[in-house]
Amino acid sequence: MNIKQVLQTFFIALFLLISVNSSAQISREELEQRRRELRQEISRINELRSSNRQRQQSVLSQVEDLDQQIKSTENLIRVTNQQANLLTKEINENTSRIATLKEELEVLKKDYAEMIEKSYKSKSSQSRIMFLLSSENFLQAYKRLQYMKQYTSYRQQQGEQIQKKTEELEQLNTALEEQKKEKDKLIVENRQTRAELEKNRKSQQELIQNIRSKESQFASQIRQKQQEIDKIDQQIDEMIRASIAKDNEESGGTSRSTFKLTPEARALADDFVKNKGKLPWPVKNGTVTMRYGKQPHPIVKSTTINNNGVRIDTDAGGKARAVFNGTVSEVQAVKGANKAVMVRHGDYITIYNNLAKVNVKRGQKVTTGQELGEVATSRSNGKTTLHFLVYKNTQKMNPADWILKM
């Protein structure tokens, strides 16, 4: 391998290293962010369960809380393992690159040593002078002299440069090793958490056995709860239709199911659609406890539940926040679910239900992230739950399709 090939290989390897490490760094940051979120989520569930132990909580609620904690802890363990695996892979890759660069460095050193040795054996001081004096003219002699100096200096510089890069890679590898130790420590902690998790699973199974022995009784409770949810959803649908009719009446329209759009409202709707899947969460910290649509009950599988939006458990005193720019079209009390704020984004609507306090009023312009009110905390189970819904006119939509990583 000549010097040109060695240098080409070195710079290609260095470029690939930088590229891979940049993309890997993003992945590590994303995983670390997810790990922090899961830890916060587990902490929130633990606090909620601790406070609920003082209440006469239903068996179904206890099982649901345990199920939520189990899933969050399993996700935490999986994310931490992904971090450790990613770091292990990067350490192995960097170790291999360091070894390759060391080999290239040895080749350069050996080549350089041979050059020096040959120089002394075949070209004494007198020989080098003769080499210069044999030049046809002064310009050729000058070029030969410069070539001899530059060649020696160039080879020495390249050796020093590769040595420096090798040291940098070794430092990087050392840093990664330290990170790996830290992640290994987290994995050990997670194993301890898993032991606690198994206790929770055992408790959950005992509760589930209790439920199954009285399944018809619990199914009846679930159906009753679903009826309450249906009544709330019906009130929401009526509120939307009334708001559309009121808005259209003010602008000269007659429809009760479709907004009459001005050019400005149409542009706002277009912007809302462009941000589909990227909208922020309607609370600062939250966990989805019931997803959109028809689904088997998580515990009593023979019973189906339906939800027109998503239910998000958040911190006590948590604030509902607008997910996009818009106008408050309704603020209304909802029987069985405190207060609801409806924000219009052209012909799209976001609804923030179960608010104890409201900070906005009808007709008010709001911006993304603006606080709309405080989410109510249930006296019966201690949960602070936001009911969040997305509509296009009167058409129900899945909020998870619109909110980032929901």
Instruction: Let me know the number of strands.
Output: 12
Strand % is: 15-25%
The value of Rg in angstroms is: 34 Å
Largest sheet: 10 strands, antiparallel
Q: Percent range for helical residues?
A: 55-70%
Q: Could you say how many structural domains there are in total?
A: 2
Provide structural commentary.
The protein is of the alpha+beta class and 406 residues long. It folds into two domains: 3-213, no CATH class; 259-401, Glucose Permease (Domain IIA) (Distorted Sandwich). The protein is built from six helices and twelve strands. The protein has helices at 3-52, 59-122, 125-133, 138-213, 215-251, 263-274; strands at 286-290, 293-296, 304-307, 310-314, 319-321, 326-333, 339-345, 348-358, 365-366, 371-375, 384-392, 395-397. The strands form two sheets. Strands 1, 4, 5, 6, 7, 8, 9, 10, 11 and 12 form a ten-stranded antiparallel β-sheet that branches. Residues 1-24 have low confidence and may be disordered.
Q: Short description, anyone?
A:
With 406 residues, the chain is of the alpha+beta class. 61% of the residues lie in helices and 16% in strands.
Indicate the topology.
Blueprint: H1 3-52, H2 59-122, H3 125-133, H4 138-213, H5 215-251, H6 263-274, E1 286-290, E2 293-296, E3 304-307, E4 310-314, E5 319-321, E6 326-333, E7 339-345, E8 348-358, E9 365-366, E10 371-375, E11 384-392, E12 395-397
Antiparallel strand pairs: 1-4, 2-3, 4-11, 5-10, 6-7, 6-9, 7-8, 8-10, 8-11, 11-12
Helix pairs in contact: 1-2, 2-4, 4-5
